[in-house]
Amino acid sequence: MSTALIVGGDQIDGIKQELSNFGITHINHWSGRKVGDGKKIIPHDTELIVLVTDWISHTFTHKIKQSAAKRGVRIVYTPNGPAALRTRLRQLHPAHDTEDECRVTFHQALH
């Protein structure tokens, strides 16, 4: 099972679908707008963080970056929208063009 955390954004169904297309089976979401979001701890099983840059403050972004770096969790920065995320996920493994190949190699890249 691969787990991702989406940070930021409100309408994230397209982003969830893109992550699913790349083999992510469990997705958590923090909007970054709730008072307690800044105190949350990245779940222990998180392998990838998708930071939606259009919808998150610089302070919260900095906190997420620091926490991810300490844990060795990869971050993908993207504006809101599935097309931009798809491009960034494929950049993790540019040698593979088909979705099935991306799914397999993306999962391998996380480990």
Describe the structure.
It is a single chain. The chain has a single domain, classed as Rossmann fold (3-Layer(aba) Sandwich). It contains four helices and four strands. The chain has helices at residues 13-21, 58-71, 82-92, 99-110; strands spanning 3-7, 26-30, 48-52, 74-78. Helix 1 links the parallel strand 1 and strand 2. The longest helix is centred in the middle third of the chain and has 14 residues, at 58-71. It is globular. The termini are close together.
Provide tags for this entry.
111 residues, DUF2325 domain-containing protein, 4 strands, UCP020408, alpha/beta, globular, 4 helices
How does the helix and strand content classify structurally? alpha/beta
Domains, number:
1
Biggest sheet, open or closed, and with what strands and sense?
A: 4 strands, parallel
Mean pLDDT: 83
Largest sheet, spatial ordering of strands: 2-1-3-4
Cα distance spanning the termini: 11 Å
Work out the helix count.
4
Which radius of gyration do the C-alpha atoms yield?
A: 13 Å
The CATH architecture: 3-Layer(aba) Sandwich
CATH topology: Rossmann fold
Helix-residue proportion: 40-55%
- CATH classification class: Alpha Beta
The low-pLDDT segments are none
Total beta strand runs: 4
Q: Quick one: overall form?
A: globular
Order of helices and strands: EHEEHEHH
Beta-strand level of the residues, as a percent range? 15-25%
Family: Belongs to the UPF0751 family.
Protein name: DUF2325 domain-containing protein
Pfam families: DUF2325
InterPro entries: UCP020408
